[in-house]
Fold this protein.
Amino acid sequence: MGSAASHILPPSDPGNPEGDSVREFKALFRSLDVEAEWLEPMSRHTTFRIGGPVACLVRPLDEASLAKALGELKRLGLPHFILGAGSNILPPDDPWDVAAVQLTRSCSDIVPIEEHGDRVRVRVGAGGMLSRLLRFCVRHQLGGIEFLAGIPGTVGGAVVMNAGTKRGCIGEALLWVDVLDGNGRRHRLEKSRLSVSYRSLGLPPDAVVLGACLDLRRSVGAKLRGELLEILRHRRATQPLGYPSAGCIFKNPPGASAGALIEQVGLKGWKVGGAQISEKHANWIVNLGKARAEEVLALVEEAEKRVFEAFGLRMEREIRILG
Ligand SMILES: Cc1cc2nc3c(=O)[nH]c(=O)nc-3n(C[C@H](O)[C@H](O)[C@H](O)COP(=O)(O)OP(=O)(O)OC[C@H]3O[C@@H](n4cnc5c(N)ncnc54)[C@H](O)[C@@H]3O)c2cc1C
């Protein structure tokens, strides 16, 4: 996240949408090609359905406007973060003095760029949803990333998180990533320059992912469709998909299952307010209706404490707790 040198919302009156600094900010964005929504509740943009308003949600309309908007935010010292589909984050409940920048309108193309025998290289924009990418793969009979089925994120979020399952992760299919660095310069990072690991691609923290190139292989549409349906069926059987959540809360420690550890310390089904450690899968926290971020956090901390006391293990968080 950018530094918090200046404010977007007036600090004394965070609910006042027409404060001086908001007016300045609106003027700034009128000069750029962006969509902006003010005091936008993050609960509308997270799969947890949790989160108070951010000062503004900015959607640049193309890559040049994205670079300019990020440059202006930096020049003014205004804090910001990149929002994907909000499926791996927990934002705070209270008004939050940041700009959330989303790439859905600026970088979401999917373009086959090269073929070698049965391999096809496809460049995918960071703002597009994984579900759309998988539909493209079925239509063009391209395999290699079926394991992403049912992950409700964007390509950019999946690249940053090196999303995947036991069957594989996106880093395995990756050839390179295009990023903007903290100074707004575009770079192509070949996979050999990245330290790819479990749920991390090792990107610099201020890198904004613009897109990536995936190495896919020719397959058969009906076979792909069958595999995707089987993966989705398995998810429905094992995961609490009927409730808002952010998927797994913790990374699995080496050789262990975070869900099994949480279950062994007796927390399966445990509730704080409207948040619950799922009865179906103990590494998931679900929002039963009106859960607050602080209630989810209380469950996260309780699980960490009990697992450490019982097994001497410090579980690493997979979800990103913001604010
Ligand atoms: C029902 C459900 C099932 C899930 N199953 C899985 C699973 O099987 N495997 C798995 O790995 N994950 C899973 N997840 C978690 C989540 O979907 C993934 O981590 C996903 O890749 C996050 O993508 P996103 O676009 O939602 O990112 P967000 O949650 O919006 O952001 C995640 C992080 O990435 C950063 N970010 C996002 N886009 C960019 C960008 N373009 N440039 C720079 N930074 C960026 C954000 O700032 C944030 O720090 C699941 C979640 C849910 C709700």
Notes: The chain has three domains: 20-102, 110-224, 240-321.
